[in-house]
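User: These chains co-purify. Model them together.
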Amino acid sequence: MFSVLICDDSLVARKQVAKSLPDDWDVAVHFAKNGQEGINALIEGKGQLLLLDLNMPVMDGYQVLEQIKQQGLSTKTIVISGDIQPEAHQRVQKLGALEFIEKPVRAEVLEQVLTKHQIHTEIHHQQVKQLERLDPQVRDCYQEIANIAMGQAGDNLARLMNVFVKLPIPNVNLIEVSELVMMLQDIEDEESVSGICQGFVGPGVCGEALFILSDSSFGDVAKILNVKDEVDDQVQLELLMDAANILIGSFLNGFATQLDMHFSQGHPVVLGQHCNISELISTNKTRWRRTVAIEVSYGLEGYNVHCDLLMLVTEESMKIMNHKLSHWMED
Amino acid sequence: MSDHTELTEFHWMMDMLQTVDVGLVVLDKDYNIKLWNGFMESHSGMLPSEVRDKSLFELFPDIDCNWFTQKARQVFELKNRAFMIWEQRPYLFRFPNYRPITGSEDYMYQNITLSPLKSTTGTVDHICMMVYDMTDVAASKKLLEITQVTLGEINERESV
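Assistant: Joint model of the two components:
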């Protein structure tokens, strides 16, 4: 969903700006009380559009614009301010703001500006663009090898745990940081999760596997794995590691076989137990911009177990992968 | 000539496996020790000849047999690698700290990786265990957590 961040120190102003957004516009609206909060929210991918006030405590609007430039954050900024000096207009536009709207903001004016810069109408384009960014043939091919690898992983899980694994269709996308955050938020669905992340690298191909298990699954996982002890944090970590070892390991095995290469796996890292999912990746998401994401959601029949396996492969790895898979793509 | 080169390389490889700062152990399906490299020898004080063909669980009664076999089972059965990290259990082998004087912990924190070794027929009759020293990482993480808690307490006190 398109996200709009309203950054203003005044509660009244924030509400007023939110109310002025086009009614038919299905967006996620986020708020920030000062510039620093605004920058943090942008880093978290909460503002494809930024509606920015200029005079704020901690960090003002000018500094926010400078930070956006410096950190190369991708957002479109419209300044909404009571400062009507011509110099203010020029300054913010020099700093990269698209437009300057005077307070109090009126819905018609905002709509005009959004249309002028193709922000409001742009949502649809963007969804189409996202699908097209990955060549359909390449995407099909990735989906197919993911399907096979996922099936093998599911089969291994089923055999070792003696359960029936419900297999979904793997989701393959070329995504940006902000989209990963959104994707994970979708998974989250307001429940707490635990995760394991593990790097893998083969000649020319590298990435990370992210295994996420919802906390409500632990009781049933313990039953399946025959754990009789009380499920405390330590037991949960064991269960998480066991499930992650099986799924990540077998998926990578299948993946590697089809690519005819061998992957080295790094040590798994626990991504904090029972934390909010956006916190899981907020600490280290500034380093990369785009990644191929293969998303697989496993469920177990008859059990309340839900886990997600996210295989993230760097954009640079695509070249080698496509080369290795060229026989899939011919004819 | 090329035979000679290969032989030399083989010797180098063996020498490196012997001296690499990672513990290497080969186990068979009954968890008998088949190989024990220099790292394991130095830290445990047991010679390869002392441990060869002896059961891992008999030599190290501290290792939880059920726990370990459950991890190893998937390596034998699924030909998967299995990972155990120090957060689960601080160590598998109770080795003293690598730095006995300046180290802050008493024993070595370990990450363990189990990896399948395929026989010529493709079956997995042996697994390889790699033991990594994670003491410094664990010590830093513990220190960081303590600092975060202290900082949180200070913040709380100030906001009252």
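Residues 141 and 147 of chain B are 10 Å apart (CA to CA).
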